[in-house]
Design goal:
heterodimer, A: 475 residues, two-stranded antiparallel ribbon, 21 helices, 6 strands, flat
């Protein structure tokens, strides 16, 4: 008999972490209604505005939210019903379209159209003004191939060009030749260990997704309490981002990836790995790796933490920041009796709990049954828990779409706009040092849309697009 | 930093190399070293202001490449702990496995400039030591003659060439006349302090000044 999951204190901690208060003033349907009114604006391109568009933290409103509130059925008792809110919001949005609620001298509608925040005076629309004059080293405000060549070698190869290399580059003459050479150099650097090797740049992109903990690592570089090997997760992530591989397979792969060698480091797909224990029929890439189950499911019956981490890591939607809320009718059901039906919890748990149900049979830490798919896991390992726990379905909902299991969850997630946006945002942040700004939004949207379509989710091809943007190449 | 402190720090930090570095081709250069036209004033300002700090890995790799040093000898605290690791987070790096630092800090830490200077100074000291110990294979301070620890002639072509070499390696361009004059003047300023080995102290100061400049640590 495997050891029972323990301890009430862990449940309590999880409940505190995930059942945080989201007061009744928040309207999770608000972002969708906003996008129905402003469908072509940057905040609605494949995503929706976070609650912080109108709120400091619900129910406290920022300047924009406060102005909106005054136009929402004035005189009607608060809180408004969801139906009243939905009916009144479009007119309220139009009523304050020409106001400048945050006092930054840009009217709300202009800010919304330009991608800046109408409730934040620090966020202003792009000026469109570029400094003039000549500069011997940089073409300011224009795509500058010399600047791109230097930056590209640093970003992808880890080392600046030498003086002689730079002179040779400048001697290429035409811009077309320089751009072609830049593409060649990018391909060369994408093979480098600095980019794809152990602890390289792609591993850096993966750190917040995998969230390694050295003390419980098994295998190579094992820690004191070896439980699972997260290097497998880095290997699959790196594989999915390199060569002619499909980035979505980080969530959908039924195979594993083995890393070997150095300079060059190579990655190869394999059907089995001694360090991985989920059977092939239930694998969903890094969502079901031994590390994910050990670290994010751990001892939990209903693994909300695993689901929310995958949602955050691979779709860029952080429920703790009230992002990606798609409330499901009649949820949360509170199968594990954590009190999440309370109004202040339900705003997030109406999304989070159905997101978590497909993890119900994926086991975390429990002796010989660790890190496996176990049919009837809750019945087997949590017999003394609250009776309703066993009623937890494997069916769930992600992004408003019903799924039968975690494999379908992974398919819907990886085919979503949010996945493409999150993938490109990762590289935007790595290579430009910040998430896309309002000025960069047009190029950003073009880049993630091309990743989904033209490039069929090949990251390397997307990177060629990215380095051709003015966001990357204009100093 | 005072020159004698530079020298002391040099002795503490200098690493040893057992691996031949890759030669850096600096291209053709006239005898006096290349000089770029001055361009002070009237420079177009970037509206983006999005220079990137090199961070621990790029800083180390660039120093190794530019000064033709093995990566392992660029900087080691107490002679054995790579600065890349010791000062990694201070330099804008991550420390995911041991300390759960999964992302680069959004702001530069107070220790970053100190860590940059220590790393650069260590690399400079390693290069200078090799150039002085094996003049026939000197890389940067080639043919720079010292007598009793002093530069024979700060205005010599060898000094000018060494300074152009430093600047080309760090900034990927030639120095302006003013920049080169400033670095030559530095030799006189160091000597005026009375430090016992002003020639070496000048090499350290010049190398540190160039490789720890904004132009060298941002990209």
């Amino acid at each position: 008999m495997p050891p029972f999951p323990e301890t009430p204190s862990r449940w309590l901690l999880l409940g505190l972490l995930l059942g945080f208060a989201t007061p009744a003033g928040a309207k999770p349907g608000g972002p969708g209604l906003f996008c129905a009114e402003y469908p072509t604006t940057p905040a609605c391109q494949g995503t929706q505005p976070a609650c912080t568009y109108c709120h400091v933290a619900p129910p406290q409103r920022n300047a924009y939210g406060a102005a909106l509130e005054t136009w929402l059925l004035p005189g009607r008792p608060r809180p408004l019903s969801d139906a009243d809110f939905a009916q009144a919001l479009p007119a309220a949005l139009r009523a304050i379209a020409n106001e400048d609620t945050d006092g930054d001298k840009a009217p709300n509608q202009f800010e919304i159209e330009q991608g800046s925040l109408p409730g934040d005076a620090r966020s202003v629309p792009p000026s469109g003004i570029c400094g003039g004059g000549d500069n011997p080293q940089f073409k300011v405000c224009q795509y500058d191939t010399r600047f791109v060549y230097r930056r590209l070698l640093s970003d992808f190869c880890g080392v600046s060009p030498t003086y002689a290399q730079l002179q040779a580059f400048l001697a290429l003459g035409t811009e077309d030749l320089k751009r072609a050479f830049i593409d060649q150099e990018l391909d060369r650097c994408l093979q480098s260990d600095f980019w794809r090797g152990k602890h390289g740049q792609l591993w850096k992109v993966a750190h917040p997704k995998i969230r390694p903990v050295g003390s419980i690592k098994s295998g190579e570089d094992a820690g004191q309490i070896p439980l699972a090997d997260y290097y497998d997760d880095y290997a699959l992530f790196t594989w999915s981002q390199t060569d002619d591989h499909d980035a979505r397979e980080v969530l959908t792969a039924r195979y594993f990836v083995k890393r070997s060698g150095a300079n060059p480091t190579t990655y190869a797909s394999v059907n089995t790995l001694a360090s991985q224990t989920v059977d092939a029929a239930h694998r969903a890439g890094n969502m079901t790796s031994a590390w994910t189950l050990t670290s994010f499911v751990m001892f939990t019956a209903l693994p909300r933490n695993a689901a929310s981490q995958m949602y955050r890591a691979y779709l860029g939607l952080d429920i703790a920041k009230q992002e990606g809320l798609h409330s499901v009718t009649n949820e949360p059901r509170d199968y594990d009796a954590k009190g999440v039906k309370a109004e202040q919890c339900a705003a997030c748990h109406a999304t989070l709990d159905p997101l978590s149900y497909p993890y119900r049979n994926y086991n975390g830490i429990s002796g010989a049954l660790s890190n496996r798919y176990l049919p009837n896991r809750l019945e087997l390992l949590f017999p003394n828990d609250v009776e309703t726990l066993k009623q937890t379905p494997e069916k769930g909902v992600i992004l408003g779409q019903p799924v039968n299991d975690l494999l379908e969850w992974a398919q819907i997630a990886s085919n979503s706009d949010a996945f493409a946006i999150s993938t490109v945002t990762d590289y935007w942040k790595l290579l430009l040092g910040h998430a896309p700004t309002p000025e960069e939004n047009e190029e950003f949207v073009r880049t993630w849309k091309a990743l989904r379509t033209t490039h069929d989710y090949r990251v390397q091809k997307m990177l060629h697009d990215l380095i051709r943007t003015e966001a990357y190449g204009a100093p | 930093m005072r020159p004698e402190r530079l020298l002391l720090t040099c002795l503490l930090l200098t690493g040893c190399s057992d691996k031949l570095p890759i030669a850096v081709d600096l291209g053709p250069s006239d005898a006096g070293g290349g000089v770029a036209p001055s361009y002070d004033g009237g420079v177009a300002r970037s509206q983006k202001g999005n220079l990137r700090f090199k961070g621990p890995e790029r800083l180390t790799l660039d120093l190794a490449s530019a000064l033709e040093l093995p990566v392992a000898s660029v900087c080691n605290e107490l002679g054995q702990y790579p600065c890349l690791n010791v000062h990694g987070v201070s330099l804008g790096g991550v420390d995911p496995y041991a300390h759960s630092v999964y992302e680069t800090a959004p702001v530069t830490g107070a220790a970053a400039p100190i860590a940059v200077e220590r790393t650069v100074l260590s690399a400079c000291n390693a290069r200078i030591a090799q150039d002085l110990n094996a003049p026939a294979t000197a890389v940067v301070f080639k043919d720079v003659a010292l007598t009793n620890g002093k530069l024979n002639d700060p205005t010599s072509p060898a000094v000018a060439t060494a300074l152009s070499s430093l600047v080309r390696r760090a900034w990927l361009r030639d120095p302006t006349q003013e920049e080169r004059d400033t670095l030559v003047q530095l030799a006189r300023d160091v000597e005026a302090t009375g430090t016992p080995n002003p020639g070496v102290a000048w090499m350290q100061a010049a190398c540190l000044a160039v490789f720890s400049s904004a132009e060298a640590v941002f990209y």
